[in-house]
Amino acid sequence: SNQLMAGKRGLIMGLANDKSIAWGIATALADAGAELAFSYQGEALKKRVEPLADQLGSPIVLPCDVADEASIDALFEGLREHWDSLDFVVHAIGFSDKSELRGRYVDTSRANFALSMDISVYSFTAVVQRAEKMMRPGGSCLTLTYYGAERVMPHYNVMGVAKAALEASVRYLAEDLGKDGIRVNAISAGPIKTLAASGIGDFRYIMKWNQYNSPLRRNVTIQDVGGAALYLLSDLGSGTTGEVLHVDAGYHVVGMKAVDAPDM
Ligand code: NAD
């Protein structure tokens, strides 16, 4: 434990269960002395998120469906009843119809393209828009992305296109908020077995491929992501904004299959 986040208050969005990347981030932040609030997507998740928030001593647990502007407004109004300022926000949210997270990108429907962009891209901008109004200089915003934004990955399809747009929005948001001393960054995490990931075709194969071919010869954990989030959300990251930080065991630097990787 350390006190890197002592005196800082932040909102964690996208916790579904203890496998969630949001949980790895929340535990690292709580361990560093942060005071946390959580939002959950719907009644079904409330009973999962409340006990986890309780474990970290966080009494503030509020609903928010990021597809709905009124719901995002209600979240921030609810937050203001507890806190008059905010130091950080974590957006660990993404969605696409899983029937389109397999097969060919070219077969993406207009409806699911719009939905994926709305939930996985615009929602971060919508959240930052509200968070900015509660933040002082030193504020920090973080979202989660994946290498499928930069290179073609099997089955990732429309989510790759959405993550590319999300990464671009991080750069634009960083410029807009930078003048006020607020930073905006993304972590590009390697594959981790979570609820959302289980919707992606051949996910076990993707995990194996990364394990055999990344420089560290392993997959990353939600604790690995938590450590990087602590850097970006604390004052250790004070000079870093608009960045996409890879936490992927180095996979993104590799150009071909490792010589010691088994045939798959
Ligand atoms: P997860 O299933 O634990 O979390 C996804 C969260 O998104 C859930 O809490 C869900 O409730 C929330 N969500 C979806 N639609 C929503 C809506 N309309 N309103 C509010 N919340 C909504 O999975 P995860 O893997 O921890 O995903 C977190 C983020 O990390 C996502 O952006 C994902 O794309 C990204 N990511 C995941 C991996 C991986 O391999 N797991 C790798 C890189 C990036």
Automatic annotation (TrEMBL):
It holds the Pfam family adh_short_C2. NAD(+) binds at residues 14, 20-21, 41, 65-66, 93, 163, 192-196. Gene3D superfamilies: Enoyl acyl carrier protein reductase, NAD(P)-binding Rossmann-like Domain. The keyword Oxidoreductase applies. GO terms for molecular function: enoyl-[acyl-carrier-protein] reductase (NADH) activity. Its EC number is 1.3.1.9. It catalyses: a 2,3-saturated acyl-[ACP] + NAD(+) = a (2E)-enoyl-[ACP] + NADH + H(+). Keywords: Fatty acid biosynthesis, Fatty acid metabolism, Lipid biosynthesis, Lipid metabolism, NAD, Oxidoreductase. Pathway: Lipid metabolism; fatty acid biosynthesis. InterPro entries: Enoyl-ACP_Rdtase_NADH (IPR014358), NAD(P)-bd_dom_sf (IPR036291), SDR_fam (IPR002347). This is Enoyl-[acyl-carrier-protein] reductase [NADH].
